[in-house]
Amino acid sequence: MIAGALLLLSALRVITSAEDLTSSGQWSGALGAAVPIGLAGLGGLWAERAGIVNIGLEGMMMLGTFCAGWIGWQHGPWAAALAGVIGGAIGGVVHAIATVTFNVDHIISGVAINILALGFTQYLAKLWFGAEGSAAQQAGGNDKQSPVMENMGHFSVPGLSDWLHSIEKHHWFFVSDIAGILNGLVSDVSWLTIVAALLFVGTFFVLWRSAFGLRLRSCGESPVAAESLGVNVYTYKYAAVVVSGALAGLGGAFLAIGTHMYSDGQTGGRGYIGLATMIFGNWRPGGVAMGAGLFGFMDSLQLRSGGPTVHALLLLVAVLLIGLVVWQLKKGKSRQAIVSSIVVAALVAWYLLTTTVPLEFVDATPYVATLLVLSLSAQRLRPPKADGQPYRKGQGK
User: Fold this and answer.
1) Buried (b) or exposed (e) across 13-32, using 16+ Cβ within 10 A?
2) N or C: which end of the chain has fewer CB within 10 A?
3) Which GO CC terms are listed, alphabetically (predicted)?
4) Mean of the per-residue pLDDT values of the chain
C-alpha cells in the first residue's frame, strides 16, 4: 500500500512537474507540522479509550504553549517542554473533575475548557509578558507573545542526509522521490520529534500490551463490566484524561519551542485537527500517526505557499475518487457513484483550466482535507462503545 502511494506520488510529480510534492523541504515541514497534531490526536485517543470525549484538546494545547513560553524564556526549551506537559495536564484535571466526578456533559466541558483557556492565556500574557517595566517586557515580551527562548537544536543523520540529497537533486523517477522524502525525515529533526515518536510506540505497548491498558480500555467499552471485575473506573478515567491533557500540552509546547516563543493564537485549531486524526485513525496509535502525517503534509503546503502543489493534488484526488466510483458501482450504490463522478469531472475541469489555486484555498487545505478524510472514512469507524456515556459508580448493581 505504501509502495503504491509512493509510486502514485512520483508519477504525479512527473506528470504535473510539481517538484515540491516529494521534496525534502516539503516533507521536513510536514514532519514538523505533524508532531503537534499527532500529539493532540494521541491525547484524544487516551481519553476516549477510557470513555471520555475530550473536545478540549485545543484549550489544553493553548495552556501548553503558554506555559512553555512562560518557562522557556527563563529556563530553556527542555524546561519549556516540561512546563507545557504540566499546563496541558492541568487542563486534563479540570476536564476529568467535570466529566468523571460531576458527570458534566463531555462536549460542554470540552468547549468550556477551550473558551476558558483562551481567555486565561490572553489575560496572563498581558499580566506577565506585557506589564510595563516587567523583566519579560524588557526581554522583548508584550501582550501577544513571550520573550524569545533558546533554540532546542536539531540533528541530521551523519552522511545519510548528504547522500540522499545528492540523489534527490537528479529528479529521477521514484528513486529521487524516495530520497527526497527520506531526506526530509532524517535532516534537521527536532529532538522533541523523537520524543513524540517514542510516545506513539509507548502508547501502543501500554494500552494494548499491558494489564493497565486492558483495564483502561475496558472502562471505555463497558465501565459496568470493568467495575464488576474490580477495576476502579474513576481512577482509570482520571489517569487517561490527565495523560490526554499532558500529551496535548506537549503538542502546544512543541509549537512554542519551534518558534522560540509563545504567541497568541499559536495553536491555530490544531487541537481540533488532532481530534480528527484520532477519528480517522480509528482510535489506534498507528492510524493517528498516519492521519497526523496526512494533515501535516497539508499544513506544510500552506506554510510553503504551495499553490502549484495543491493544484497538482487536484488531479490526485480525482484519480482516487475514480477508484471510489468503481467501488460504489460494484456495491450497487449508483446514486453515490453519480455524485462522486460529478465531483471528479469538476476537479478535472478545475485542473485543466487553471495553473495554480488561490492562496486562500491553499490556506484552507488542512481543513478541507479534514472534512474529506472524515467523510470518506466514516464507514469503517468503530469508537469505544461507552465513549461519551455518563457513568456513576455502582450503577450496574
Assistant:
1) beebebbbbbbbebbbbbbb
2) N
3) plasma membrane
4) 91
